[in-house]
Task: structure prediction
Amino acid sequence: MSTATVFGLCAAAVVGLGLYGLIASPQPLRKVLAFNLLGGGAFLFFGVVARRGAAAGFGGDPIPQALVITGIVVAFSATALAIALLLRLFEVAGSATLSTDASGSADTDPTGA
Amino acid sequence: MTVALAFEIGLAALLLAIAAWTITARDAFTAVVVFVIYGLLLAIAWVDLSAVDIALTEATIGSGLTGVLLLGAAARLRTIAAPAVERPSKSLRVGAALLSAIVAVALAGVVLFLPDPAPTLAPAAAANAVATGLDNPITNVLMAFRAMDTMLEKVVLLLALIGVWSLVPDRLWDERVSVERNGPRRPTDRDDMLVFLARLLPPVGIVVGLYILLAGANNPGGAFQAGTILAAMWLLVLMAGLADPPPLSRRWLRLVLVAGPAVFLIVGLGGLWLGSAFLAYPVAFAKPLILVIECAMTLTIAATLGLLAGAPERGAER
Result:
């Protein structure tokens, strides 16, 4: 078993865990967190592919590695936007839930329905 | 089994356990703290995969700045999160677990059956490194071979910031309102340690950030990592209350925000005009041009990341 295989299997399992959290977590903040976890696994997968392509004196193929750096920055942008939307939802609706019936029954304000 | 492999298996197991904890933790705040640990462990895994540039990026952006952002959100949502503990239905959880297991097993299968002489572009990257005069292959890819990606990614950052800004309540756009309402922020006694660190660390952090920017030409480092370190120093000063976040309407702020993509675009169009293609650097000036773009990008990245991680609202409401 090589370094690449160990982290490759780890990446596969992390993607699975992240996907589960993304679907099953009820709170939006936890969904964003799970999305980042999933992203980390996907980046690790790229890292494994890069490591296997080590050649020409480099420790890994620099192209997938550069793509991961770009990916991490884009994932951060998406997270920041998601958090801003979430906080705005909390401010306007007074709750941060995605469940339609929960907000409908808890909210007595007619304008909030 | 060698010691190195045993270490890797241990690290992978730890990563998995921490990832599972992030998903299963009861409290959102705990989950975020565990997620930050996950990011730092992931950075160690990146070093092990010989990707020190990614390790730096993961530790600073993936773990550090994302952690600041999520911790801030978790703290604000904490007040309401406690009563509204919704449980997803059992069928949803079973379905999600099944789907996730299938995806994970399929990915694991892909890992185990990757083509054996692994396809690689490393020799091509090494052969063309002469054209830029930089030794760090990742900087070469980011700034020259796939410069278009990097430029568009700057635009994505800017779009995200525009999105975040458009969600800011109207009253916070007017600087005078927030200053009259809250007054300039004054550090309280409670924050003694934070204020001390906010005075001590930024000079060191700025030097380290600039070093990482300049070292990025030949060693691990570069504009992303440098910009993030500078953003972190700025956030530290803002959090300690030693300075106020700039009002969103300031012209200098907007100029800094577009500097990176604008310089990139100008150089790119220059390549179209003087050279052969968009973003084609003249060979004689490739290295200085890349450095100029990286300097402008570092400024933009630092400002954008700082503003994204510490939305103006949070600074004004404390």
In short: Confidence is low (pLDDT under 50) at residues 102-113 of chain A. Chain A has one domain: 3-96.
